[in-house]
Specification:
Elements lengths: L5 H15 L9 E3 L5 E3 L7 H9 L1 E6 L2 E2 L3 E6 L2 E5 L1 H13 L2 E6 L5 H6 L5 E7 L2 H4 L2 E3 L8 E6 L17 E4 L4 H9 L4 E4 L2 H9 L5 E5 H10 L3 E4 L10 E6 L3 H12 L3 H14 L7
Parallel strand pairs: 3-7, 3-8, 11-12, 11-13
Antiparallel strand pairs: 1-2, 4-5, 5-6, 8-15, 9-15, 10-13, 10-14
Length: 288
């Protein structure tokens, strides 16, 4: 996620003010959110919705913890704990609210249904804000932008190098993810194998049941780093969304607005560090 240079932006804004003069006075400031709707400046922190979360003492977040380094299980002080890049973002939001973070782990394709049912306040699960999903939930601004790769068996690294080379081949993608339509474009819808767990897709690949898996580049590179039998390949896949966003229940505008303020306050350097820490924790890269 590219951050705005505040000094440069301020200089540009001052120049515009000098040119426009009093003609711009009284104009109502608006911006467009990730859902394509204009929003006015609002004091989200003092809204009833934010007060409700603070009074509850916890922020409940839904995720699917099988997607290292974004969200995954690990042992911390002997206890099974859900950690990862997305969880670090969630923790930052909970800390800003002064509440505890409660993480609910479930199948990826059930997350948005459970969000709509009110089972949690938001979803962080490397979600892309697609047009179809926007019909069901409201999204924050993007906090990260990924590229997509395919993972193939190392012995097939020279065989599958382009999208065309995978046409008609069995290709796996996570059920409910935006990577499914990407896999369909590459292999044909009838050849896409949709599985809930990423580890299950890897098993199918290693057993020769599928020829490739479509994954986020960070995930794909991670599997290559820890398994000599796998290779991540760039076949020119295009992103299907503007980036990873936080999902809130449809109409939960005050929470979305509050979250956007938190995201805007996270520097690019901090995002990079959180992602690096998550990769180290997942064993994808070694700590220097």
């Amino acid at each position: 996620m590219k951050k705005i240079n505040l000094k440069k932006a301020a200089a540009i804004a001052m120049s515009l003010i000098m040119v426009l003069g009093v003609a711009s006075c009284g104009a109502e400031e608006e911006k467009s959110d990730a859902n394509g709707e204009a929003e006015e400046a609002v004091d989200y922190e003092n809204s009833e919705r934010i007060k409700e979360i603070k009074d509850s003492g916890k922020l409940v977040v839904g995720t699917s913890a099988d997607y290292a380094p974004f969200e995954f299980h690990t042992k911390i002080d002997g206890e099974d704990t859900i950690v990862g890049f997305d969880i670090a973002i969630a923790q930052k939001i909970a800390d800003s609210l002064g509440v505890e973070l409660e993480v609910v782990d479930m199948a990826f394709d059930s997350l948005l249904i459970s969000l709509d049912n009110g089972d949690f306040d938001m979803v962080l699960a490397s979600l892309g804000a697609t047009e179809e999903r926007k019909k069901a939930v409201d999204f924050s601004e993007p906090y990260h932008q990924s590229t997509h790769l395919v993972v193939v068996r190392a012995e097939d690294a020279d065989k599958y190098t382009t999208a065309e080379s995978l046409k008609g081949q069995p290709v796996a993608a996570q059920k409910g993810a935006t990577l499914v339509p990407e896999a369909e474009k590459v292999a044909g819808a009838e050849n896409v194998v949709q599985l809930v767990k990423v580890n299950d897709m890897v098993t199918e690949l290693l057993n020769g049941k599928v020829e490739a898996i479509v994954l986020d580049s960070v995930i794909a590179n991670g599997y290559e780093a820890v398994n000599d039998e796998l290779v991540a390949v760039d076949i020119g896949l295009e992103p299907t969304s503007d980036g990873e966003c936080i999902a809130c229940k449809k109409g939960d505008t005050d929470l979305v607005g509050y979250v956007n303020e938190i995201i805007a306050g996270i520097s690019e350097e901090e995002i990079d560090q959180m992602l690096l820490d998550a990769q180290i924790l997942a064993g994808i890269i070694e700590e220097k």
